[in-house]
Amino acid sequence: MSGLSPHQKLCIKRKRNLEEDLALLGKLQNVNPSEPRLEAAAVPSGLHAAPCVFQGVENTWVSEIPVDNIIDVPDNNVDSLDDIRIEYHPHTGLPAETFAFSDFSRTHFPVPPAPDPDRDPWSPFWTLLDFEIVELALEAVLNKDQTERLIRLLQWLHNQREKFTIRNHADLRATWDASGACLTPDPAIGPHCIFDAQQLLKFDGNSFVRFVDEPYTANAFWDLQTDLPKEGRVLGFILYVDKSKLSSFSREKGYPIVARLANLPTAI
């Protein structure tokens, strides 16, 4: 009976029950149940006849049970207060579903048990060293390339391919200072500074042609000294952003700003 409404199913059920009752009544009264069925006028008092019309079943008048004993069948298509309806995306091809509020629930997945801090305090990491290295990378906000570089260096040390000699931050600062001394010919940079603007010209066979090779030979440096008093000198700084390097500072990231003294030759 798929496709029939609840009312149609109820009519079929009542018709069958009535036919069974009439057959039993016929046996008790010695009446042949194959004879024509009772007319609506022959229905006992207290009963009434009502039409049942549905697809696939011939239209008939069926004597029903007393009106006072009829049980109303609720219409399943009527929505109730607080009902929950799920409407699926049209691409799924699924029809909408309606649930009573008390029947509706979402599947909640169980939360996995937390690791035992006394037995495996660094779980799920394999070792305590793994945890501490990852924690350091997280606190320093290292990007992907920096993290992979750090891991490669640690693996290099683990394989004992080279010895790491820096012991602490003070040792690191001393190494930086030593490197700066090696790269700077004279720690006293004063003698190397040029405070007076210059103009360089090269003879091309016909005339001298101006060219620039240092900051203090540029027009800006010349014009700045012109605007100063006669005894004034220019101390220039060049600030620029190096976008080829992305630096991390705690939880902040940015391109480093480089400061260069314009009075120094570019070779220093």
Strand order of the largest sheet: 1-2
- Percent helix among the residues? 25-40%
The largest β sheet comes out as:
2 strands, antiparallel
**Continuous helix count:** 5
How much is the average pLDDT?
Answer: 75
Any low-confidence stretches, pLDDT <50, length ≥5? Answer: 36-44, 46-65
How would you classify the helix and strand content by structural class?
alpha+beta
Task: Calculate the terminal CA-CA distance, rounded to whole Å.
Answer: 96 Å
What radius of gyration results from the CA coordinates? Answer: 49 Å
Q: What general form does the structure show?
A: elongated
Strand content: 15-25%
Order of helices and strands: HEEEEHHHEEHEEEE
Report a brief summary of the structure:
With 268 residues, this protein is α+β, with helices and mostly antiparallel strands. It is built from 5 helices and 10 strands, in the order αββββαααββαββββ. The longest helix has 23 residues.
Can you characterise this structure?
The chain is of the alpha+beta class and 268 residues long. The chain is built from five helices and ten strands, in the order αββββαααββαββββ. The strands form five sheets. The chain has a two-stranded antiparallel sheet with strand order 1-2. A two-stranded antiparallel sheet has the order 3-4. A hairpin with a 4-residue loop joins strand 5 and strand 6. Mean pLDDT is 75; it is low at 36-44 and 46-65.
SSE topology:
Blueprint: H1 6-28, E1 49-54, E2 57-63, E3 84-86, E4 97-99, H2 128-139, H3 144-158, H4 169-183, E5 200-203, E6 208-211, H5 219-227, E7 237-241, E8 247-249, E9 252-254, E10 257-261
Antiparallel strand pairs: 1-2, 3-4, 5-6, 7-10, 8-9
